[in-house]
Design brief:
The complex is a heterodimer of chains A (about 120) and B (about 110). Chain A has no helices and 12 strands. Chain A is mainly beta. The relative contact order of chain A is 0.35. In chain B, the strands form 2 sheets. In chain B, strands 2, 4, 5, 6, 9, 10 and 11 form a 7-stranded mixed beta sheet that branches. Chain B is built from no helices and 11 strands. The relative contact order of chain B is 0.33. Classes of the chains: A mainly beta (about 120), B mainly beta (about 110). At the A-B interface, strand 5, strand 6, strand 10 and strand 11 of A face strand 4, strand 5, strand 9 and strand 10 of B.
């Protein structure tokens, strides 16, 4: 069965520090997709990125970057020069193609607190 | 383009009652999924609908049900409410059929007393 583990339940950093959020996944499917979502205090999940299992290229979007490594089943998320507005709960999620749908399996989330 | 909307935003019910939550997806999106979020269990998948058909169902009792209408709007119903049903219920819509990114609504906060 699919599983996503986010071992860091809470991380606290000072503004401008870099921070990496870890995500480890388990799946028996060969075709799958990985996602990151941000949940600010307002509660609404905000989509950040979607990557498929065949694309291991790292991705950078502004201060955000993602490192996908199939060899270690990890999809880590790094925020460079963190800001107070980055404070939120971040979720990593997995979707398997064999489910023939959009069902997401979420990790437990990592609460990031960025202090000024 | 308007985002996913959910109504009501907050709801207080008594044990044994039933409740219906509504979700309007982003225009053009035909897939709607429902998730339950609690502090103890985290985010758990309830079910997904695509073109009025349920495609996947999570591991929840039969008290949880849903449906999708021809305009892609979706409702979920919980009958015989229990205290443990208190949660944030999130609806998400997606354009594609399989493994597309999903866009979430603000959620309905259900409190069962």
């Amino acid at each position: 069965a699919q599983k996503v583990t986010q071992a860091q339940t809470e991380i606290s950093v000072v503004e401008k520090e870099d921070v990496t959020l870890d995500c480890v996944y388990e799946t028996r499917d060969t075709t799958y997709y990985l996602f990151w979502y941000k949940q600010p205090p307002s509660g609404e999940l905000v989509f950040l990125i979607r990557r498929n299992s065949f694309d291991e290229q790292n991705e950078i979007s502004g201060r955000y970057s993602w490192n996908f490594q199939k060899s270690t089943s990890s999809f880590n998320f790094t925020i460079t020069a963190s800001q107070v507005v980055d404070s939120a709960v971040y979720f990593c999620a997995l979707s398997e193609a064999r489910n023939a749908g959009n069902m997401l399996t979420f990790g437990g989330g990592t609460r990031l607190m960025v202090k000024p | 383009k308007a985002g996913v909307t959910q109504t009501p935003r907050y709801l207080i019910k008594t044990r044994g009652q039933q409740v219906t939550l509504s979700c309007s997806p982003i225009s053009g999106h035909r897939s709607v999924s429902w998730y339950q979020q609690t502090p103890g269990q985290g985010l758990q998948f309830l079910f997904e609908y695509f073109s009025e058909t349920q495609r996947n169902k999570g591991n929840f009792p039969g008290r949880f049900s849903g449906r999708q209408f021809s305009n892609s709007r979706s409702e979920m119903n919980v009958s015989t409410l229990e205290l443990g049903d208190s949660a944030l219920y999130l609806c998400a819509s997606s354009f594609g059929q399989i493994t597309y990114e999903q866009y979430f609504g603000p959620g309905t906060r259900l409190t069962v007393t």
